[in-house]
Amino acid sequence: MTDFEKIKRFVLRNNNNAKLCIDKNGLFYIADQNGNLFTEHFMPHTPKAVDAWKTAKDVIELDKNLRRTHPLKSVFYDDTADRINRRKRL
């Protein structure tokens, strides 16, 4: 399996409706049924289809990392730590 196939499979696994589209200027981008998939991340349109899939993969990974390390999620970790510490005392 080539790197391109791995990248494309990764994107499709995370978003089943993703597909490659081309705009009126001949640039490629990844879209879903609602339109451009990564407009909220300001994903650029690229001159090569391979680059569009690579950019989509990078955006998905970045989004996962941001969601994982968001400051509001630390509240859940504090609650979990308190719960574990209470168990240790018993």
Tell me what the structure shows.
It is a single chain. The chain has helices spanning 3-14, 49-68, 74-89, and strands spanning 19-22, 28-32, 35-36. Helix content is 53%, strand content 12%. Strand 1 and strand 2 form a beta hairpin. With 90 residues, it is an alpha+beta fold. It has one domain. The chain has a three-stranded antiparallel sheet, with helices on one face.
Low-confidence stretches: none
Q: What's the pLDDT, averaged over the residues?
A: 79
Strand percentage: 5-15%
Q: How many β-strands, per DSSP?
A: 3
Task: Report the helical percentage.
Answer: 40-55%
Key attributes of the depicted protein:
alpha+beta, 3 strands, 12% strand, 90 residues, three-stranded antiparallel sheet
List the helices and strands and how they pair.
Layout: H1 3-14, E1 19-22, E2 28-32, E3 35-36, H2 49-68, H3 74-89
Antiparallel strand pairs: 1-2, 2-3
Outline of this structure?
The chain is of the alpha+beta class. Helix content is 53%, strand content 12%.
